[in-house]
Amino acid sequence: AQSVTQLDSQVPVFEEAPVELRCNYSSSVSVYLFWYVQYPNQGLQLLLKYLSGSTLVKGINGFEAEFNKRQTSFHLRKPSVHISDTAEYFCAVSDDTGRRALTFGSGTRLQVQP
Amino acid sequence: GAGVSQSPSNKVTEKGKDVELRCDPISGHTALYWYRQSLGQGLEFLIYFQGNSAPDKSGLPSDRFSAERTGGSVSTLTIQRTQQEDSAVYLCASSLTEYEKLFFGSGTQLSVL
Question: CB neighbours (10 Å) of residue B91?
Fold first, then answer.
């Protein structure tokens, strides 16, 4: 069984400040990792994903995440946030055991303040 | 259509009634997923379709929940004898193949009174 933990339910940050949203996972097999974003009144959309290869993954809107197998983490970062980054961010994990569905974390609400 | 379409967008029902939620995936997407998002919670997996078959239905919370997919396209999620704890946003997503990017619909907000 796999699980995802997003330790921070809310992260307030000022505009142009850096941000890190934390994600830890638990799995006994190789994993695939994802970050999805849900803007207000919109559906979820993929920010970035890690399947294999380089552990530093770059996504849309200037976000990046680093896969750390030893620490079982996949933290999301952005060096300078904008008001428009205010949204709910979900970390998700899948594996290659045959169960294809993603397991999502409980989400982190990023609130960017002027 | 251009994206994943779900209907209705909102559904209010009385406890004990049956409801049917519809998902129209992106044309050509073979994989289809149903998730449930409760207030303040993450996304809870319900069921996954590959074509018309459901290789993983492990997330369905009880036998009151069922889903089907026909023609490798439209899917319906049926909840029988609804309970108040069924109130949530039901999200549908589709992808071209497994492990591809998921495209989500806007969801159906279900309220059971």
Answer: 25
β-partners of residue B90 are: B36, B108
Q: SS3 of A61, please?
A: helix
d(CA B10, nearest CA chain A) in Å: 13
Please report, for residues A99, B32, B62, the alpha-carbon distance to residue B104 in angstroms, rounded to integers and kept in the order given: 19, 10, 24
What is B3-56 written as a DSSP string? S-EEE-SEEEE-TT--EEEEEEPPTT--EEEEEEE-TT--EEEEEEEETTEEEE
pLDDT digits (tens, 9 = 90+) for A50-95: 988 889 999 999 999 999 999 999 999 999 999 999 999 999 998 7
Residues of B in contact with A92 (CB under 8 A): 43
Token pair in block for residue A81: 């946030």
DSSP secondary structure code for residue B102 in this structure: P
- Tens of pLDDT along B21-41? 999 999 999 999 999 998 777
